[in-house]
Amino acid sequence: MSVDAATVRKIASLARIAVTDGDVEAMVPELNNILGWIEQLGEVDTDGVAPLAAVIPNHQRLRDDVVTDGNIRDKVLANAPQAEHGFFAVPKVIE
Length: 95
What we know:
Elements: H1 5-14, H2 21-42, H3 73-78, E1 83-84, E2 87-88
Antiparallel strand pairs: 1-2
Pfam families: GatC
Enzyme class: ligase
Organism: Rhizorhabdus wittichii (strain DSM 6014 / CCUG 31198 / JCM 15750 / NBRC 105917 / EY 4224 / RW1) (Sphingomonas wittichii)
């Protein structure tokens, strides 16, 4: 794939980026070089190579899934503007 000045202007328009004619002419060879590198990557033989997300093996450390109330009710309710009987007190919305 080859990029020309019209394509650069179209991309700039879609991205809402203001570019001058000088910028457009400078971007054409740069974008063509980038696309050339991408084409080279597409030529690499990756048959038999397993996909991976990281270079080093990562093991996710999980904690036991235990239900708990946190035992910090009083600290949480201290942040509330109003609390009654261990719950948040809110004004009545529906009559």
